Amino acid sequence: KAGVTQTPRYLIKTRGQQVTLSCSPISGHRSVSWYQQTPGQGLQFLFEYFSETQRNKGNFPGRFSGRQFSNSRSEMNVSTLELGDSALYLCASSLSGSLAKNIQYFGAGTRLSVL
Amino acid sequence: AQKVTQAQTEISVVEKEDVTLDCVYETRDTTYYLFWYKQPPSGELVFLIRRNSFDEQNEISGRYSWNFQKSTSSFNFTITASQVVDSAVYFCALWPNTGFQKLVFGTGTRLLVSP
């Protein structure tokens, strides 16, 4: 069974640009969550999607958005990039999103560098 | 509010030494779930264990063992006879069963095992 796949693995952008990251969950998983990992702030929750609907959102500005498609694949978009957006973006999938019964499995991440 | 504290930023040991990674959490929920993840240099967070708040039984899995003590709000992780391949960053995380359900991560402990 394939794991969580994130593409691309590495990205270099300049300030002001926008970027789209992609995540393919484990087959059968309907919940996809996104996290930002930086040396200063650690791992922070961005948002969670389930059945194409955003269920939870972390404390990030509106420049960070996402969506989920009918096949559960998810994309995350960051507009008007800032230097502080440089981070490892991790995607995680689970069957239902409730970790009382399930486990979140993570992808290898997309490392975004903003110059 | 939920909080996870991993006071040890970095631990260095020599192969075959035992090492314990500390995790202290804060939550007002009576039902919650605790996790440990391992992040090797490749970046992917690898699931190690999940424990629910009602199950204080310690667990051993090969060279890994976990000590959950509700009275001290701690969920410590011990690696016995460490190996170089254990070198990674280890994260403890909390998932509350009510309210804003998201994984709250500690800041991680970097474990360096030298030969």
Describe the structure in your own words.
In chain A, 0% of the residues lie in helices and 52% in strands. Chain A is mainly beta. In chain A, strands 2, 4, 5, 6, 9, 10 and 11 form a seven-stranded mixed sheet that branches. Chain A is globular. The radius of gyration of chain B is 14 Å and the shape is globular. The mean pLDDT of chain B is 92. Chain B has 115 residues and is mainly beta. Chain B has strands at residues 3-5, 10-14, 19-21, 24-26, 32-39, 46-52, 59-61, 64-69, 74-79, 88-96, 104-105, 109-114. Chain B starts with a strand and ends with a strand. Chains A and B meet through strand 5, strand 9 and strand 10 of A and strand 5, strand 6 and strand 11 of B.
Quick recap:
With about 120 residues, chain A is mainly beta. Chain A has strands spanning about 5, 10-15, 20-25, 30-40, 40-50, 55, 65-70, 75-80, 85-95, 105, 110-115. Helix content of chain A is about 0%, strand content about 50%.
| Largest sheet: number of strands, sense, barrel closure of chain A | 7 strands, mixed
| Strand tally of chain A | 11
Which stretches of chain B of 5+ consecutive residues score pLDDT under 50?
none
Q: Please identify the oligomeric state.
A: heterodimer
Could you tell me the number of beta strands of chain B?
Answer: 12
Overall pLDDT confidence of chain B:
92
Largest interface: A-B, 24 and 24 residues
The share of residues in extended strands of chain B comes to over 45%
Secondary-structure map:
The complex is a heterodimer of chains A (115) and B (115).
Chain A: E1 5-7, E2 10-13, E3 19-24, E4 31-38, E5 42-50, E6 53-57, E7 64-68, E8 74-78, E9 87-94, E10 105-106, E11 110-114
Chain B: E1 3-5, E2 10-14, E3 19-21, E4 24-26, E5 32-39, E6 46-52, E7 59-61, E8 64-69, E9 74-79, E10 88-96, E11 104-105, E12 109-114
Parallel strand pairs in B: 2-12
Antiparallel strand pairs in B: 1-4, 3-9, 5-6, 5-10, 7-8, 8-9, 10-11, 10-12
